[in-house]
């Protein structure tokens, strides 16, 4: 599988209030498969599109749009990471505090 990063990462606020940075379909797929809070139509579509993006079948931006729709479906707040001012460094620090 080839990692295709999104032009603009997504910052998602998890149910516990912690921000998490998603840079591409691999990050999103891992979260969708192992940590997702609820399953619905967009959840399944996002998994399919992330897998297809990693296989080179669809553009990474299609997977990004499906992942964003799944976040909305699950009531997870999201923003473009650049607009939210979330850096990879701050997201990693937040994740380390959580563990």
Considering the chains and any ligands shown, give keywords for the structure.
99 residues; alpha+beta; three-stranded antiparallel β-sheet; 5 helices; 3 strands; 54% helix; 12% strand; globular; disordered C terminus; DUF982 domain-containing protein; DUF982
Can you describe this structure?
- The structure is a single chain.
- The chain is α+β, with helices and mostly antiparallel strands.
- It has one domain (10-98).
- The protein has helices spanning 25-34, 41-54, 60-73, 81-84, 88-98, and strands at residues 10-13, 19-22, 77-80.
- It has a three-stranded antiparallel sheet.
What does the secondary structure layout of this molecule look like, with pairings?
Blueprint: E1 10-13, E2 19-22, H1 25-34, H2 41-54, H3 60-73, E3 77-80, H4 81-84, H5 88-98
Antiparallel strand pairs: 1-2, 1-3
Describe what is shown at a glance.
The chain has 99 residues and is α+β, with helices and mostly antiparallel strands.
Order of helices and strands: EEHHHEHH
Q: What is the count of distinct domains? A: 1
Alpha carbon gap, first and last residue: 29 Å
Main sheet: strands, sense, barrel: 3 strands, antiparallel
Pfam families: DUF982
Organism: Sinorhizobium glycinis
Protein name: DUF982 domain-containing protein
């Amino acid at each position: 599988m080839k990692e295709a990063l999104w032009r603009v990462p997504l910052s998602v606020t998890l149910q516990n209030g912690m921000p998490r940075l998603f840079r591409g379909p691999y990050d999103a797929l891992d979260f969708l498969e192992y940590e997702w809070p609820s399953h619905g139509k967009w959840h399944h579509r996002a998994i399919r599109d992330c897998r297809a993006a990693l296989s080179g079948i669809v553009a990474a931006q299609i997977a990004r749009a499906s992942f964003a729709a799944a976040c909305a479906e699950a009531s997870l707040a999201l923003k473009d990471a650049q607009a939210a001012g979330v850096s990879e460094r701050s997201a990693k620090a937040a994740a380390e505090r959580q563990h």
